Amino acid sequence: xxGGDGSTCLDCEGVANGAATYDxxxxxEGDGxTCLDCxxxANGAATYDxxxxxGGDGSSCADCNGVINGLAVYDVCDVCDGDDTSCLDCxxxxNGAATYDVCDVCQGDSSTCLDCAGIPNGPTVYDxxxxxGGDGxTCDDCAGVPLGTCEYDACDVCCGDGxTCLDCAGTPFGTCKYDNCGVCCGDGSSCVCLAIHKCPTVEVDHALLExxxxxxxxxxxxxxxxxxxxxxELCRYDVARGNLASEVAEFLGVSNxxxxxxxxxxxxxxxxxxTLEEALATTI
Length: 284
Fold this sequence. Notes:
This protein is an all-alpha fold and 284 residues long. Helix content is 26%, strand content 0%. It has 2 helices and no strands. Helix 1 runs antiparallel to helix 2 (244-283). Residues 193-204 have low confidence and may be disordered.
């Protein structure tokens, strides 16, 4: 170069007309890599983030709790740092379909806790008579005993022996009675001789008199015993007690009883007399 200083043809290494040049990174004889960013762009802006990701936002290496390079992970139930139990069904299967029924039985049919009325966990139970929700009276016997064995007998008596309503012939609620001769369903004629010529008068006389005398003597002996007791009481009577009126009243009561006995005796004798008269009239 005319008047030149000899620098215009120098290469970057100062060699006149040399081949050395500056690369894209402005490095003499460089290979163009010294100014590349992580994406290979010369003088580019891309850099490695904290997770060593080119152009990254630093989140790719954060755990589920947001801690860079942390250890927390999502469990099988998709819970961060969980223990894999929060999504187990009642059989222990993660995210399984098994559930507890209304009786709190896993995979149950809700029947194990039904009361007798079919209500889950209901209060209704079988009573002693095996009746659901019953009051325990439907199986009472006639005496009121649950599942008892008493029944009404033929006389309509609970636990009875069927004899309280029998007539003298043994028929429940029958109409037969003993007649005056002591014969069941009799007509009172078996002990009375209605035909004098067929029954000796002495036999009629003896039978009736014996019956009336024995009965009368029995009652007289009883009355005498009572009167003797009253006599003894009156002998011990203390005037200061002032109970004479009651003692006398009791004495009179016994006396009236004795009078009734004598009246019965007279009635028997009159009956005997009338019977004989009727019998004699039929034979004449």
